[in-house]
Design brief:
about 40% helix; single chain; alpha/beta; about 200 residues; globular
Length: about 200
């Protein structure tokens, strides 16, 4: 009888410990972040990627400690940790393309964490970035501003997941580079507004 009680106690402790571990392995701070994550996962599936984030682990949260010039940070750990600059997130909400800007940062950071993409600083014929994975060590005069909206967004998503998207027609001329009403708060290299 004692052995049975001991075994039952062991099973209960194992189950409780397992449940706690899974909670700590997967956490997304807000429903808004969850919606951007789900959009990323949907796009990933379109390109043949499948992720079991509850098993493999993912923590997505806001931070006040990334510094003024950092929009997001991906830490390769178990679980994978992705943080976003809370101030930037609030500030960008007031712009018409605020959702695109947020999606861009989430996709960029998840590109690092889930796709194992590194910064890629090649340019298209018209001088725009070839990938939303631009960043890292750049000349101070270079902004990592990406026009991530409209037909350009489709191209950038394809490039993110394939790393081999065809050179788009819109990039063969600079006439179509429309940044009307685009105000740069921080660019992806996370410099202040006057350096955009």
């Amino acid at each position: 009888m004692q052995k049975i009680k001991g075994f039952i106690l062991f099973v209960i402790l194992f189950l409780v410990t397992s449940c706690e571990k899974n909670e700590l392995m997967y956490s997304v701070e807000t429903s808004e972040l969850e919606s951007y994550l789900q959009k990323f996962l949907t796009e990933a599936k379109n390109y043949g990627y499948e992720f079991d984030l509850e098993k493999d682990g993912l923590i997505m949260q806001f931070s006040d400690n990334l510094g003024n010039n950092v929009l997001g940070l991906c830490t390769h750990s178990v679980p994978l940790k992705v943080e976003f600059n809370r101030k930037y997130w609030k500030d960008v909400t007031k712009y018409e393309d605020g959702n695109d800007r947020k999606e861009f940062v989430v996709f960029h950071e998840l590109g690092h964490g889930l796709l194992d993409r590194r910064h890629y600083n090649e340019k298209l014929p018209n001088g725009e970035w070839k990938s939303i994975m631009c960043g890292g060590d750049l000349d101070d005069s270079e902004s990592t501003l990406v026009n991530y909206r409209g037909e350009r967004k489709k191209y950038y998503i394809e490039e993110l997941f394939t790393q081999s998207a065809d050179i788009p027609e819109w990039s063969k001329t600079s006439k179509d580079y429309d940044l009307t009403d685009y105000v740069c708060i921080l660019d992806d290299e996370f410099n202040s507004e006057d350096e955009c």
